[in-house]
Amino acid sequence: MENSKDIEQRLLILKKLSSEAVNLDTYYTLATGERTKRIYLDSTASTLQLKIVHEVLEKYQPYYSNTHSDSHFGAKLSTEEYNWAHRMVLDFVQADPEIYTAFFAGSGATSGLNRIARALAEKNPQRDVVITTVMEHHSNDLPHRKQFQEVVHIPAAMSTNSVGCVNLERLEEALEEYAGRVNYVAITGVSNVTGIINPIKEVAEMAHRHGAFVVIDAAQMAAHLPIQMSGNDNPAQDLDIVVFSGHKIYAPGSPGVVVTRKDLFAGVEPQEIGGGVVEDVAIDRYIITEKFPDREEAGTPNIVGAIGLAASLYALKKVGMDLIAEEECRLITYALDKLKAVDDLVIYGETDCTECQRTGAVSFNLKTLDHALVASALNDYFNIAVRNHCFCAHPYVREMITQTLIEEAEHLSDEELDKLAEMHRGMVRASFGIYSTEAHVDALTEALKYISAHSDYYLEKYEQLPSGNFKHRTFNFDHTKVFTVKGTVDQILDS
Ligand SMILES: Cc1ncc(COP(=O)(O)O)c(C=O)c1O
Predict the structure, then answer these.
(1) Which H or E run includes 172?
(2) What is the atom index within ligand 1 of the atom nearest the CA of 192?
(3) Would strands 129-133 and 150-154 be described as parallel, antiparallel, or unpaired?
(4) What does the alpha-carbon distance between residue 154 and residue 147 come to, in Å, rounded to a whole number?
(5) Is 51 in the pocket of ligand 1 (CB under 6 A)?
């Protein structure tokens, strides 16, 4: 049983990490001419960088070298620390190193998901169906469509007020319907649109009962919730493969991560080959190493990125993802309560967290304004960075928007409904990280109220471009006055 002193210590570390993200103190000049501190509510796209990651990488710089050698001090140190980064990943997702391996791929989750789809399609060609959900980011949908005969999309369940998590009954039905053909169930742990949390343990158990593997897209889960791949009380709930992105867990510049049961990748030639993955090469043949993770990491790896990621994971582990999840659950509940009180705001997905758990993100629309205009006004007039449109989850976004339009249809004329449909071809998303605060939520809420109450003013200030984006008629953000690579190099070298 943990004592209160330990929890206090963990909270202190969390406070230190969250208050010191390196890019929290960024200032921009707004359309009003004021210069204010930016409020970052775009962590679902990429989180800010923890200072500890920055510091670790700076301290590592003198010793930087290529890996896979112990011929000199730097190579030895880099090899050891790069290996430790793999062990740290396994530890972070509670994966038994005897059974699982972690390898780095590309710069985000997308590369890992493509690798998985190719490898598992090749390993079990007779299992030519993948089951996924309508909630997925395109990166956990299109790679499966490309490699498999059929991809089945399970709908979300209706919760009390709106759409909730994946519909488990429909999943079970699909597993029965495609019995013997399902290679794996690929599902997101947390939606990048609504922040709705999926019951991945139940999904794993169900998939395994039907002889399928389970692949978890943890791109939005890793930074917000604990992940337990192995050692679950019910072993059927253990996860076969988990994928996530370093840039979404406070270590931008780091690689994407795949953690997989080794047997799933054994016996098929790695998808990418070259240096580092072979035992021996002759002019007419080559022998791929059996060793994990080496066989899955052809070429010189992103060593600096992997070390930065390991620093982030270790720091988060010191706090404990259970505590982070609790804190974020409090913040998202606060955000939903605050936003629900904004007139004319439609929030997508179930907003009662006791009915349907959520973390990390809230997507919404002001009924009377285009999503792109709202995002631009939040940025240009309030220095609040959000994202808008469909977040690479078109089917899910479209389904939720259609559902609210159907609800509205009762009260609106055809013309009004058409106008609303045109404006709501996307949503606005506010998303959070460990550095997000209630004050940030308050600022967002007040800004939305103000924009809603002064919609004519903002409509006048902007013109809509053919792309659908909105351009301010008089204010122009010239990024070259803030930062350019060339200007920075010139400034340093020519001064
Ligand atoms: C749920 C989800 N899966 C996959 C991805 C793709 O991740 P990446 O851009 O790191 O490749 C994202 C990115 O936003 C995501 O939110």
Answers:
(1) helix 168-177
(2) 16
(3) parallel
(4) 19
(5) no
Residue 73 Cα to ligand 1 midpoint, Å, equals 37
Parallel, antiparallel, or unpaired: how do β-strands 100-105 and 256-261 relate? Answer: antiparallel
Residues of the chain whose pLDDT is less than 70?
1
Is the C-beta atom of 220 inside 6 A of ligand 1? yes
Does residue 219 have its Cβ closer than 6 Å to ligand 1? yes
The rounded Å distance from CA 472 to ligand 1 centre is 30
109 lines ligand 1 (CB under 6 A): yes
Give the pLDDT confidence of 166-207 residue by residue, as tens digits: 999 999 999 999 999 999 999 999 999 999 999 999 999 999
Evaluate: CB of 137 within 6 angstroms of ligand 1: yes
Distance in angstroms (rounded) separating the CA atoms of residues 432 and 341: 19
Provide the mean pLDDT of the chain: 95
Element (H, E) at 428: strand 427-431
Regarding the beta carbon of 358 and ligand 1, being less than 6 Å apart is answered: no
Q: b/e for 62-101, b at 16 or more Cβ within 10 A?
A: eeeeebbeeeeeebebbbebbeebbebbbbbbbbeeeebb
The reported pLDDT for the residue numbered 425 is 84
**Amino acid at the residue 60:** Y
- Whole-number Å distance, alpha carbon 41 to ligand 1 midpoint, is 16
- Determine the distance separating the centroid of ligand 1 and the alpha carbon of 244, expressed in angstroms: 8
According to the model, what pLDDT value does residue 1 have? 65
CA atoms of 176 and 178, how far apart (whole Å): 6
φ, ψ of residue 403 in degrees (nearest 5): -60, -45
Please report, rounded to a whole number, the percentage of residues in the chain having pLDDT higher than 90: 88
- Cα angle value 184/186/190 (rounded, 5°): 155
